[in-house]
Structures are given as C-alpha cells and as structure tokens.
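Data card: per-record layout.
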Amino acid sequence: MSAVSMNVVRHGAASRTAQAVAALRAVHQLLDEPLVLPDPVALPMLGLAAEAALRADPFVLNDPLSRALRAALVARGRVAEDELAQAVADGVRQYVVLGAGLDTFAYRNPYRDAGLRVFEVDHPGTQADKRQRLAEAGIELPPSLSFAALDFERDDLRAALQRAGFRAEQPACIAWLGVTMYLTADAVLATLRALAGLAAGSRLCFDHVVPAAMLNPIERVVTEVLAHKAAEQGEPWLSSFDPPALRERLLEMGFAAAESVTPDELNRRYFARRRDGLRAGEGARIVCARA
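The structure for this 291-residue chain is written out next.
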C-alpha cells in the first residue's frame, strides 16, 4: 500500500477536529438516551480537566450544530462496530483503525477473549499524545492492541502494519472514519485501491462528504458551516463523492460488494422514536465494502 496521508494531525498531538469529535462522543454518554454508541472510555480520554468541565456542563455542546454532528459521529461509529461484530462472527480476528486519533475501541474491546487484535495506525506524535492521556486516566494498554506508527506522508502502510504484527494473508475489518474529507479525491481513491487488495473476507467501513448540490438548503448550510469551522482550525475539507458513482468505483477496484448507508437507514436503525430528537443528516455517507 502506498503512503497516503490518512489523518489530519499535528506532530506531537491529536488534531483539533479529533479532539472535538472526542468531546462530542463524551457528551453523548452524558446527555443522550438511549445511547447509540456506549463508550465508558470517552470521558477519561479527554483528560482530567476537560472531563471535569464537560461533566459540570455538558450542555455547552448541545447546540443544534453540535447535536447534528454528534448524531453523525455516533452513527458512523456504531455502523463500523456493527460491521466488526459480524466480521468477528465470521471468524475475522484483526481490526485496523486507520487514522485512529482518540478512538477508544481498543480499550473497551468486547472481543478480546475471542482473540481480536486491534491495530491503531497513526502518526507517532499523535500516538504519544494518546498514550499520555491514557496513562493520566489510569487506562492500561491491553495486550490485544498494537500501535502501527506511521508518518503518512512518507511511510508505507502495509509495511507499518506488518511490523506491528498484522497478517496480510488473513482477513481484517478496517475502520476509516472522519478522515476522507480532509484528503484529496485522488488520495482517497489511492487508499481504497490499496485496501481492495485485502485478503478475502475482509471488510471496510469509511465515511465521506457528499457534494453540496445533492443536499437540501438546510443541510447545505449545515455542511458549509462545519466545513468552514474545520478550515478555521487549519484542517480544510478537500473532497466529496457522489455515492452511486463511488460505489461503482469500489466495485471496479475489486471489492466484491459495497453499500452506502443512507441517512434514512441510519435513522431507522438507531434514531427511531427517540425523545431527545437526535437524527442523522444528509451531509455525509457511510460506506461498507467487502473484499
């Protein structure tokens, strides 16, 4: 697999958008009922001061824009973990989190006893920041976790995974969430081509932004605001994809199947009859593909 930048990071720390996502995931644990993505590690991952502040006033992140973004990120996380559950049932024992950032799955892995190994792929500076957060929270690194340190601008993904103990001849489940919009379309497609060569039985979940022309006026405004906020943090959105066209590209690359999960389907699965009114919007899509 060629080296492709797969996460927006600052050397030595998680990106600001990664920290914002972690905060929204934590607020989900405090405000939303029922939980779409239960995550007992979400709050400790923030650090002691940030966790205390959020517990004291979680409503600081409950404005309409934050609620919309929160629904989107817990939905994508749940889709990926539902896909992983099916993969484990089918015998898959490798889970790769590309651009892991502050992802928490490895520290609450329910399939540890079944032998699932988790590989977190990210820049070594980001991983050092995460290790420090975990140490401060008293969270031990599980034996089932391997860090695949990678400078995405220079290093080869396959080689980094193999150094971490990944078995390329065995199937894997891959999660690539909250990343593609920060990459050029060419970079996204190059990575997808590489992932199409995974062992048979492998699964991939990733998300992407849809073109503004496909959105209704309200969703277009919401998406523009989110993109503007990301750009202000120095992390501009660089790509979007038409879902049917992207599905055709995935099949041409060699994936055996690819499905774009629509917002209507997400709302049926996870947000039906909720008193808190959380709903998935139209601005992004989640894709599940199989090798």
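Known properties of this structure: Residues 1-11 have pLDDT under 50 and may be disordered. The chain has nine helices and seven strands.

See the next section for split statistics.
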